[in-house]
Amino acid sequence: MGTLLSVSELERFYEIRRTVFSLKKETVRAVDGVSFDLEDAQTLGIVGESGSGKSTLARCISFLEPADRGDVTFMGRDWLRVPSKERKTLRPQMGIIFQDPYSSLNPRKRVARIISEPLEAREGSSQRELLRSKAIEALEDVGLGEDFLDKYPHEMSGGQRQRIAIARALSTRPRFLIADEPVSSLDVSVQAQIINLFLDLKERLSFAMLFISHDLNIVRFISDHVMVMYRGKIMEMGPAEDIFQTPFHPYTRMLTGRESNGDAPSAEPVLEHQGRPGCVFFSRCPERNKHCQTEVPRLSGPGSHRAACLQYAP
Known about the structure:
By secondary structure, the chain is of the alpha/beta class. It has helices at 54-61, 84-90, 111-123, 128-141, 158-170, 188-205, 216-222, 240-245, 250-255, and strands at 3-16, 26-39, 43-47, 69-74, 77-78, 94-97, 176-180, 208-212, 225-230, 233-239, 306-307. The radius of gyration is 21 Å and the shape is globular.
């Protein structure tokens, strides 16, 4: 088992105005110096509140939007800088599942066409019977039958639509899958079915996965390792059970319901910390001290379980 994906100091910034009347633009660091490795057939869960940079990170890794700085190495290739022709060759090895199964499927296309498009790009062939047989195989992977091939998205339930989205993403048998909040818009009973489907598919097809969710219980159940993000930075990362049983960072303890000193602090405006030194979690941290306001903590800790907190600095 080797490293399939390596992300190094990845950054993505946006220039925005606080109000429509403001003349001055300010920089939002949506992804700020993120680095991690993902091994073959492993699942890395990414958690954090809305605005923490989880989806932006996924979009940069998948090249759906450009990164401003940093490196992404995928299957030994410089993914962000390879020629477009080579990236097109590698693309079938990276599948993506989006949050909303309603908007991620083209309402004007039948399921057969939706699943066949990535297959056609990989095979370099438009042979109808070949593509149809592979589409049927992809449907069977997700527990659906051949009768779904001629249906339109509006004729299916939310859970069935998400199964179609999963079938499309896995139809090319990718080595790496990005699942961005894939169950958040589904009913609780359907969520459990889709999560069990992911586990079954991973065992059978053996792909690596980046699983993004705000639901910590789901992330704990499905992930080998977990990365906790806040304001574009990694707050803590390590083996899933270590993160949930003995969380180091005050932010992780807050997310898991183990925050100290009474009630959890309230959320801060997205731009509150931008451009200032110190820890990005300073204004919300119940355990802060004067050093946290001026010193930027780096990921450190025992073994593979690390936190960006001055309490755990070596």
